[in-house]
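Fold it.
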Amino acid sequence: MLLENMLSKNMKQIDFIAALEFLKTSESGRKTPVYSGYRPHIEFENYPEYLTSGEQTYIGQEVVELGTKVKATIKLLATSYFSKRLYENMEFKFCEGARVIGFGKILQIINTELQCEEGIDQKEINLNLYPKDILERIKSDFRDNYSLAKRKIQEFIILDKTFRDYRIVRALLFTANQEISRLEKMIALAKIDWRDLLLQAEYNQIDKRVRDFNNEFGKEKL
C-alpha cells in the first residue's frame, strides 16, 4: 500500500524502482548514512561512457545505514540518452566521483519511454556490445570526436531493427570517411533508404560489388 501511494502521487517524478545495496565504509563506501533525496551518479551496465545522477527516494524509510539493502524509487536527472535502453533486472552502480558506493538492480520501470522493446537482445541495441572491429574503427576514425560519433551511431541503431545489422553499421563508418558531418549525412541517407547507403559503400561506379560488409573490417573486399 505504501508503494502504491508513492507511485500514485509521484508517477511523473519516478523513472524506475530499484533494489539498492550500499557498501560498508570498509568496502570503500561512504562514511555516513544516506537520506531520501540523495543523488549519486549512476552508471548502467554496458553504458560506462554516460553517467547521470539519480535521485533516490527510499521506500518505507528515510535513512539508510551503510552495508544494508533497500528498495527505492529513482528519478534520473537526464533520460534522453537512455530512451528504450533500460529493462527489468538491469544492473547499475552508483558513485560519488570515481568511488563506487553501492550497486542496484532495476525492479520495475515506471517511465515507459525508457523501457527497452520486449524481446530485444541488448547485443542488438547496445553499441558497446557490437563486434570489436566496429568499435575499433569508430575509435581510430574519429579520435577526438569518438564520443560524439559513438553517440550518433548509438541513437541511429535504436531507431529501427534494420539499422542494427552489423553490415549497415560498417557501411555507415566506411562512407563517413572519418568526418562527423559526413557521418550525419550518411545516417540521414540510411533513414530514407538504407539500400542507398549499401550502394555507396559496397559498389563501385559501374555498379559492380567490390565489398561485403557482412565481413569485418579488413576482410570486406571481394
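The chain has two domains: 2-114, 122-202.
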